[in-house]
Design brief:
7 helices; globular; four-stranded antiparallel β-sheet; alpha/beta; six-stranded mixed β-sheet
Length: 237
């Protein structure tokens, strides 16, 4: 579904991505982990076209993702931003239906928004609330509902459990995994939370020093020396 080949990006004299090669199959859930400042968000922004790489390319269904093909790609992706990033001036349903309202009347858009809110465990009574009236967990759920409102084929999750207590984080992880399995969407999650990796991912890739240092199935990560530090293990054994 998505291929990344030889991707490089520097800011001034600081290299961030130094030749990243990565691929995500249709319907696969990939988690990208790494320490803060290793380029995880830059990688995501390069895929979305928000940052132009210095070299390398991004493929969408085997074809280069460029100015001509990017609009079709963007029409088929959803995004859960770190912190939710709801619009303060819009009600919850208007946030969820933000994209839908560009192509359909408010009535049908609101109905879909309420349906997606129900999917993430929020009742219809939350539809007319403002984001400031939501708890942190409810805000994250509303943002997740917005990410899936248009039934995207690809969903990006940027630190989906940041700021949540362990119980709410587990609920969000469960919702994400359920949605990915139900819809068959391809998912890329950026996270430092290894509990999220275990709950959400089929595969995990470690980004370090601008390269993918390790890439493999989640089931194999406990035996990977490169991941020992992230798993709370002693790398020396």
């Amino acid at each position: 579904m998505i291929g990344i080949s030889g991707l490089t990006k520097s800011f001034g004299d600081r290299p961030v991505l130094a030749g990243v090669d990565l691929s995500v199959a249709r319907g696969e859930s990939l988690c990208v982990i790494g320490q803060s400042g290793t380029g995880k968000s830059v990688l995501l922004k390069c895929i979305l076209g928000l940052v132009l790489p210095d070299a390398g390319r991004v493929l969408w269904r085997g074809q280069p993702l460029d100015a001509a093909s990017r609009p079709a790609f963007l029409a088929q992706f959803g995004m859960l931003f770190q912190g939710g990033a709801l619009f303060d001036s819009l009600s919850v349903w208007q946030n969820v239906a933000f994209r839908l309202r560009q192509t359909m009347p408010d009535g049908p858009a609101r109905a879909i928004a309420i349906e997606k809110l129900a999917r993430v465990g929020l009742g219809a009574e939350t539809a007319d609330l403002m984001p400031a009236q939501l708890s942190g967990g409810m805000m994250k759920r509303a943002a997740l509902a917005r990410a899936i409102a248009a039934d995207p084929q690809v969903i990006f999750f940027d630190e989906p459990t940041t700021g949540l207590d362990p119980i709410r984080a587990r609920r969000i992880n469960g919702l994400i995994r359920g949605i990915v399995e139900e819809t068959g969407a391809t998912a890329i999650t950026i996270t430092h939370d290894m509990d999220s990796v275990r709950a959400i991912g089929d595969r995990v890739a470690l980004l370090q020093d601008g390269h993918i240092l390790w890439d493999g199935p989640v089931a194999a990560m406990d035996d990977a020396p490169a991941l020992a530090g992230f798993l709370g293990q002693d790398p020396a054994g």
